[in-house]
Specification:
This protein is of the alpha/beta class. It contains eleven helices and 13 strands.
C-alpha cells in the first residue's frame, strides 16, 4: 500500500448464502481526495463500507484502511477514522453538553473548539436531546462528532438518504465548509449523484457488487459524452457505434451515449451523419447510462 493511498481494496468479495453482495471489487482512494462511491440501492456500497470499518468479515480479498487491516478492529485505525452510518447512533438521551463531554472523555484527538464551531455553523440547538432532533439535524450532529475527532479519513455511508432536497443541500454545504478547514480524506457512499458532483474529485461506480469504473470525476466526464448524429434525409434504421452505452433513434437523428470519447471521436465522423453534435453530461446522467443492465455488462466485459 502506498503512503499516498487512504484506502486500498483488492479482489474483495462478500457472499451471503449464494448471493454475492460484493464481487471481486478492487479500488484505491488517494489521500486528500473526496471520493464518491456510487451505486444504486443494493449495489454493495454499505457492505463494502462495513467491511472497511471491521464490522463485517470478507469472504475473500483484502482491504487496507490507512495501512491497517480493519478486520481485527485495531484501536489506532479507529482513532484516525471517523464513520457516519446511514442510521445515526448517538445515545438518544444526550444533548450537546453530554455528547461533547462523552466524546472528550473517549476520543484522544477530540477538538472541543471545533465541535462548538461546527455545532453553531449547522444551527443545531444546544439543549435538545438527540432523540428529539429531526433526521437532518441528527445527521448534522453525527457529522460534528465525526469531524471534531480530527480524523485523517471520514467515511460517510449515504448520510443524506431520506432527507428532503433543502435539508440535503444544507447538509452538503456544511460538509463543503468543514472540508475546507479540516483537509480530511472523504470516502462518500450515495445513490444521490448530484450530492457527489458538488464535492467529489474522484469516484467509483459499482453495480450488483461489481466495479464498473473508477477515475477522477473530470476524467470521467471527458470519457463519456452525449453525441447527436443528425441525418437530414432520415436516420438509418440501424447504426453501429463503437463504445456506445445507450442509443436512441428518432426520425432524423441518433442520440448516443459514448464511452472512451477521445479515442472514438474520429470514428463518429465516419458514420455518414450530416452533423455531429457533442454535449457534456452531468455525473448523474453518466451514472444512469453506465448502470443500465446492457451498459453494465459491456463495461464488465471490458474490465
Amino acid at each position: 500500500m502506498s503512503d499516498t493511498d487512504a484506502i486500498v481494496i483488492d479482489g474483495l468479495s462478500k457472499r451471503f448464502g449464494s448471493k454475492y453482495a460484493v464481487n471481486d471489487l478492487s479500488l484505491t482512494v488517494p489521500r486528500g481526495s473526496v471520493y464518491g462511491f456510487l451505486g444504486r440501492n443494493g449495489a454493495g456500497k454499505t457492505t463494502t463500507i462495513r467491511i472497511l470499518m471491521g464490522l463485517l468479515s470478507p469472504t475473500s480479498g483484502t482491504t487496507r484502511v490507512l495501512g491497517f487491516d480493519p478486520e481485527p478492529g485495531p484501536p489506532e485505525m479507529y482513532r484516525r477514522v471517523s464513520y457516519v452510518p446511514e442510521e445515526p447512533h448517538i445515545y438518544e438521551w444526550m444533548d450537546k453538553r453530554w455528547l461533547f463531554g462523552f466524546c472528550d472523555g473517549t476520543h484522544p484527538d477530540w477538538d472541543n473548539a471545533l465541535a462548538e464551531e461546527l455545532w453553531q455553523r449547522f444551527t443545531l440547538p444546544d439543549g435538545t436531546r438527540f432523540g428529539n432532533l429531526s433526521r437532518g439535524m441528527k445527521g448534522k450532529a453525527m457529522l460534528v462528532v465525526a469531524l471534531a475527532s480530527r480524523p485523517e479519513l471520514l467515511i460517510l455511508d449515504d448520510p443524506t438518504s431520506g432527507l428532503d432536497a433543502a435539508v440535503r443541500r444544507d447538509f452538503m454545504h456544511g460538509i463543503i465548509g468543514a472540508l475546507d478547514e479540516t483537509k480530511v480524506t472523504v470516502f462518500f457512499s450515495t445513490h444521490i449523484i448530484s450530492d457527489v458532483e458538488r464535492i467529489a474529485d474522484h469516484c467509483a461506480i459499482i453495480h450488483d457488487g461489481h466495479l464498473l469504473r473508477q477515475s477522477r470525476v473530470e476524467d470521467l466526464k471527458e470519457q463519456v459524452k452525449s453525441v447527436q448524429l443528425v441525418y437530414e434525409q432520415g436516420a438509418p434504421q440501424t447504426l453501429s457505434v463503437p463504445g456506445a452505452l445507450e442509443m436512441v433513434r428518432e426520425e432524423r437523428d441518433w442520440t448516443v451515449t459514448v464511452d472512451n470519447y477521445p479515442v472514438i471521436a474520429p470514428a463518429l465522423e465516419n458514420l455518414g451523419a450530416d452533423r455531429v453534435i457533442v454535449s457534456d453530461m452531468t455525473l448523474e446522467d453518466i451514472f444512469i447510462a453506465c448502470t443500465t443492465e446492457t451498459a453494465a455488462q459491456l463495461q464488465r466485459a471490458r474490465a
